[in-house]
Amino acid sequence: MQNFSDAADQILPEIERLGGRLGAAKEAIERVIFGQGAVVEETLVTLLAGGHGLLVGVPGLAKTKLVETLARVLGLDARRVQFTPDLMPADILGSEVLEESDSGRRSFRFISGPIFCQLLMADEINRASPRTQSALLQAMQERQVSVAGTRHDLPAPFHVLATQNPLEQEGTYPLPEAQLDRFLLQIDVRYPDREAERRMLFATTGANEETIPTILNAGELIAAQRLVRRVPVGESVVEAILDLVRSGRPDESNVAGIRDLVAWGPGPRASQALMLAVRARALLQGRLAPSIEDVLALAGPVLRHRMALTFAARAEGVNVADVIDRLTGPLR
Q: How far apart are CA 265 and CA 250, in angstroms?
């Protein structure tokens, strides 16, 4: 097995070359999306890791603008689907239509839906019915869709960035647990601070609009995703990931109180997501390898949608963030 230092030395030139480009991409996005540095970073980490992201926040926090800006900066073909209660799976995937030729011969032709793109924005995904939400499952996992028994490959790269309103709002449907697990990160979008909102007022209500440059292209993003998987991870970080994820499972946890608070915990896909995400964060910041700090920074986005609290915990006012704080305590 190749040792840590040899692996780091081999990819050092690539990290240095890509690190500057990724930093420039992040800066370009933050010139348009004000006061959301953590959100921008976590979204870029999601794409660098080759995954899908779930952006959760109330309306008006620039979630749609973020996805549009990302598509422009990364040079991706993007589509947007507005999820509504009457949206059907065929409206996303596409459908087969019966055509008749001049000779009278009939045949079916597949008309692709908006999912055939490189970056799909599923806007307000939890306003559609569970049946329509689940139409994305195969696409998110296998990068292909099946229509009328025929499989159709999706473009590469393919990512879903879904926005979700808080479940407390009217007219929303909770996402199925199986689909939630397909999202690499759940990215919570909160209100900007006062100074960021002040800068936003001048930037968005004036006569001049910020020009969004294209920094990367689809091929370079794919190359970056391959590089992420080659970033070496130290044994201490691997052990921290395993300790963190496994301590969130009530039957295995050695953290006090978790068995009474957690109904079901994160599965192995959470460990995989955290391993990829810490590598991507290190690359985004131009570092050779991830650290425990990366594990702590990404614990919330990786775990918060992969755990369910017991009825007793909810009755006591405990939330998932409180539980994750307990789980990360031994790593601090």
A: 7
Positions of the chain with pLDDT under 70: 1-9, 167-171
pLDDT of residue 171: 67
Q: Are residues 252 and 224 in the same domain?
A: no
Q: Are residues 249 and 144 in the same domain?
A: no
Contacts of 258 by beta carbon, 8 Å cutoff, 6+ apart: 247, 248, 250, 323, 326, 327
According to DSSP, the β-strands at 94-100 and 106-112 are antiparallel
* Domain coverage including residue 157: 21-230
Tell me the two tokens of residue 146: 């099946």
Which amino acid is it at 295? V
Q: Does the residue 6 lie in any domain?
A: no
CATH number of the domain enclosing 66: 3.40.50.300
Quote the number of domains for the chain.
Answer: 2
305 near 273, Cβ under 8 Å? no
Can you give the pTM of this predicted structure?
0.90
Determine the pLDDT at residue 1. 46
Partners of residue 147 on adjacent β-strands: 150
CA distance 152 to 139: 10
